[in-house]
Amino acid sequence: MRRFLVAGNWKMNTNRASGQELAAALAVDSPAAEDGVEVLVCPPYPYLTTISDKVAGSGVQVGAQDVYFEASGAFTGEVAVDMLRDVGCDYVIIGHSERRHVMGETDETINRKVKAAIAGGLKVILCVGELLSDREGGHTESVLDAQMTGGLADISEQDGKDLVIAYEPVWAIGTGVTASPEQAESAHEHLRNWIANRYNSTFSDNVRILYGGSVKPDNAETLMGQTNVDGALVGGASLKPDLFVPIIDAARKLATA
Ligand code: 13P
Q1: Which of 34, 71, 79, 216 could anchor a disulfide with 59, C-beta 3.0 to 4.6 Å?
Q2: For the packed helices 140-151 and 107-119, what is the interaxial angle rounded to 10 degrees?
């Protein structure tokens, strides 16, 4: 049985005070030993420590939005896996579409980050997703396959035991256009089959695949209610408790149904 994961990717938003306020509200909503739903927030780097402190003792976990693959040294501006662990991170998002398309990250870089994060004990949320032009050209599945093959190169079943995949169609991110439940389910099923072929069905049965792209309270339950959708990676709506909590509640409802 896969446990729902509802993750908030704050991107380059909030400040110290508003982040603390948001985290405090979520901590109240998600006490420790919370039911069938795992809740995660991914604040900007400078606020990781303060947000970790704020949610300590609650059911809310903390993750980073990126990481560098080297352990230490002369890499100005970069942040290492051990540093993230040191400030209380359990998870790290790797290969988000904004890193791929705004910062120009390649599958090779992403793979190096995935390896470093796993080796250092962080749980990885590997993001994949096609551009609108890929979808319109009928290339969605081949794009996803290439991102999975590249991102997970040399990752064994043992390495991947805590792996989470996030399917985020680029055309649905921050646009208000959500993938239909059928489009999401079709991509998620494809990804799960890819994992079964590359690894095995026990492994693919256990890997959680989150949907991301304009998830809101009014579409969360239908999206997460799809057979192969195991939670959500939420951007804009994760910045307001009155939008994010109903999304967590939708997962709770599905988990107990
Ligand atoms: P939005 O929910 O704002 O569309 O962002 C999705 C996303 O990119 C989460 O990582």
Answers
A1: 34
A2: 50
